[in-house]
Amino acid sequence: MATTSPPPEIDDPPTRQIEPVEDHQVIEEFWEPDTGATTAEYAITTLAACGFAALLVVVLKSEPIKELITGVISSALGLGS
Protein backbone atom coordinates (compact mmCIF):
# COMPACT_ATOMS: atom_id res chain seq x y z
CA MET A 1 0.00 0.00 0.00
CA ALA A 2 1.40 3.41 -0.97
CA THR A 3 1.85 6.00 1.68
CA THR A 4 0.86 9.57 1.02
CA SER A 5 2.01 12.68 2.74
CA PRO A 6 -0.52 14.58 4.78
CA PRO A 7 -2.13 17.61 3.13
CA PRO A 8 -0.47 20.94 3.90
CA GLU A 9 -1.98 22.92 6.69
CA ILE A 10 -3.51 26.29 6.01
CA ASP A 11 -1.14 27.94 8.46
CA ASP A 12 1.99 26.60 6.70
CA PRO A 13 4.28 29.39 5.46
CA PRO A 14 4.59 29.86 1.69
CA THR A 15 7.32 27.86 0.01
CA ARG A 16 8.87 30.86 -1.76
CA GLN A 17 9.58 34.31 -0.53
CA ILE A 18 7.91 37.16 -2.41
CA GLU A 19 10.19 40.15 -2.59
CA PRO A 20 8.69 43.64 -2.57
CA VAL A 21 9.38 45.71 -5.68
CA GLU A 22 9.28 49.40 -6.39
CA ASP A 23 6.85 50.87 -8.92
CA HIS A 24 9.63 51.83 -11.32
CA GLN A 25 10.85 48.21 -11.41
CA VAL A 26 7.43 47.04 -12.57
CA ILE A 27 7.23 49.76 -15.21
CA GLU A 28 10.74 49.01 -16.50
CA GLU A 29 9.95 45.31 -16.71
CA PHE A 30 6.87 45.73 -18.91
CA TRP A 31 7.79 48.85 -20.89
CA GLU A 32 10.43 48.60 -23.55
CA PRO A 33 11.50 51.71 -25.42
CA ASP A 34 10.85 51.84 -29.17
CA THR A 35 8.25 49.07 -29.14
CA GLY A 36 5.94 50.96 -31.51
CA ALA A 37 6.22 53.33 -34.40
CA THR A 38 6.58 56.99 -33.54
CA THR A 39 4.40 59.70 -35.02
CA ALA A 40 6.85 60.33 -37.88
CA GLU A 41 6.96 56.64 -38.73
CA TYR A 42 3.16 56.50 -38.76
CA ALA A 43 3.06 59.52 -41.08
CA ILE A 44 5.57 57.99 -43.50
CA THR A 45 3.72 54.67 -43.48
CA THR A 46 0.41 56.42 -44.15
CA LEU A 47 1.88 58.40 -47.04
CA ALA A 48 3.37 55.24 -48.54
CA ALA A 49 0.03 53.45 -48.25
CA CYS A 50 -1.79 56.36 -49.92
CA GLY A 51 0.78 56.42 -52.73
CA PHE A 52 0.39 52.69 -53.27
CA ALA A 53 -3.41 53.04 -53.30
CA ALA A 54 -3.22 55.85 -55.87
CA LEU A 55 -0.94 53.76 -58.08
CA LEU A 56 -3.30 50.81 -57.78
CA VAL A 57 -6.27 52.97 -58.82
CA VAL A 58 -4.37 54.23 -61.88
CA VAL A 59 -3.40 50.70 -62.89
CA LEU A 60 -6.89 49.27 -62.39
CA LYS A 61 -8.49 52.08 -64.43
CA SER A 62 -6.33 51.34 -67.47
CA GLU A 63 -8.16 49.73 -70.38
CA PRO A 64 -5.94 46.59 -70.73
CA ILE A 65 -6.39 45.77 -67.04
CA LYS A 66 -10.16 46.31 -67.28
CA GLU A 67 -10.31 43.89 -70.21
CA LEU A 68 -8.15 41.35 -68.36
CA ILE A 69 -10.30 41.49 -65.22
CA THR A 70 -13.52 41.30 -67.26
CA GLY A 71 -12.16 38.27 -69.12
CA VAL A 72 -11.19 36.50 -65.89
CA ILE A 73 -14.61 37.16 -64.33
CA SER A 74 -16.44 36.07 -67.50
CA SER A 75 -14.42 32.85 -67.66
CA ALA A 76 -15.05 32.17 -63.99
CA LEU A 77 -18.79 32.61 -64.46
CA GLY A 78 -18.83 30.53 -67.64
CA LEU A 79 -19.80 33.47 -69.82
CA GLY A 80 -16.61 33.40 -71.88
CA SER A 81 -16.19 31.67 -75.20
TrEMBL record:
It comes from the Bacteria. InterPro entries: DUF4244. Keywords: Membrane, Transmembrane, Transmembrane helix. The chain crosses the membrane at residues 42-60. This is DUF4244 domain-containing protein.
